[in-house]
Amino acid sequence: MPEPQPDTNNDPPYELIYWHVIPGRGEHIRLCFVEAGVPYSDTAFIEGGMDTLHTYISEQNLGDKVNPPPLAPPILKHGDLVISQTPNILLYLGPRLGLAAGQGNDIYKVNALALTALDGFSNEVHNCHHPIAIDLYYEEQKEECLRRVKDWVKHRLPKYLGYFERVLSGTASGEGPWLYGGVLTWADLVFFQTLDGTSYMFRKAVAAAKQSGKYNRVFQHYEAVKARPRIAEYLATEKRQKYSNYGVYRYYEELDVVADE
Amino acid sequence: MPEPQPDTNNDPPYELIYWHVIPGRGEHIRLCFVEAGVPYSDTAFIEGGMDTLHTYISEQNLGDKVNPPPLAPPILKHGDLVISQTPNILLYLGPRLGLAAGQGNDIYKVNALALTALDGFSNEVHNCHHPIAIDLYYEEQKEECLRRVKDWVKHRLPKYLGYFERVLSGTASGEGPWLYGGVLTWADLVFFQTLDGTSYMFRKAVAAAKQSGKYNRVFQHYEAVKARPRIAEYLATEKRQKYSNYGVYRYYEELDVVADE
Q1: Could you count the other beta carbons within 10 Å of the beta carbon of residue B110?
Q2: Is A14-96 assigned to CATH 3.30.420.40?
Q3: What is the predicted ipTM?
Q4: Which of A21, B41, B156, B238 is spaced 20 to 30 A from B256 at the CA atom?
């Protein structure tokens, strides 16, 4: 793997290709740029941006000489490079934006934490609304959703919160509130965003978890990310799109349940 | 990121920590070692191996000085390094085992393809048996499974097969049967294993897809991996564990459906 170089003025611009209207999985990438203070363009806010996006994911797109076609957004274009898959884009950006812990094998530890938050925690939350089919609307699988959500809140939410509490309790997390090596990495931003979305969706269950006192480090971690100056500023702007019932994290009152004893 | 060094006799041994009885997600890692001809140990075949595994994933495990605890297997130990998450382990091993395409940014393209096969295709297949809850048995969610499977076979299977057919048709795949850069990478092994498991599970639907002639490159790719001398030899041994109804890929006759028109 190449040793990533710091950004210079000669570096090509970073271009994020992602859906408009929803924070979605693109938000993990946005938070990295925001925390690093590095400019990027975003099809969500560009006129014609969705045309660009649809060209990339068209069934006619075979990629180019050096880039395979992407299956789905988010997509990152950086000069001649076009890559997809959220954890992969974060892996590419992390060291370049100063959001990797350090040297050597640290990157694999940060990547594992980010994958656990993204492809475990966040994907399971997403699947709460799509138990039967990704292509069907929530309204077509409402009953199954409720069954799934009740189980998820009871078994899986404590599993993930407990896991990250352990990570934060361990020696490898280092001093301070962060997940690994005593410094803020892209895994911290990913876990923050995942918990933020989950708190929006299952507000009662997350409030109960907070109240229990079992996950104090997790909730301190959440507040520590939220208080980062650039993140705090960004969250207050319109660039931070609201959660809505088109995205990963949705609020349905009937699904906002607490775990039964 | 460190430039990975070729293995030498001084390199510490590779230790795979994974469940016994099922091929599961550990199989992706095994195939990399097999193709590379690099020895590794495997808790699936070691007496007391499951004790080792349970120690790693115990809720009492806080990791060590430099490694956060893993959430779940597969886990790779290599000297002092302990990492988890299948795509992350593959990312670490790929260049070290000579299964990465080349230099520079190639690794991010291979990683994206592997993630698409693993965390898209394979996870969706897995979820076909767990629409309501990962913790519930298939027997407790049979009806929902059938609804999900019918939809998956109709909409998602062609989506993934079509996507990889496009990747193989594109210029970036290079000469020969492989997904990227004209050489066999860990993404090829991942996609092979994913399709192999899916073919076991949905034999009618995959046979119909093959018959359709729409995905000829995909099925040629599958045969090309299967015919690699070390892979072919391995698949014929007992080390290649059979699919069973405990794993990612399961066969239930009532779920072996073809897409309705």
Answers
A1: 29
A2: no
A3: 0.92
A4: B238
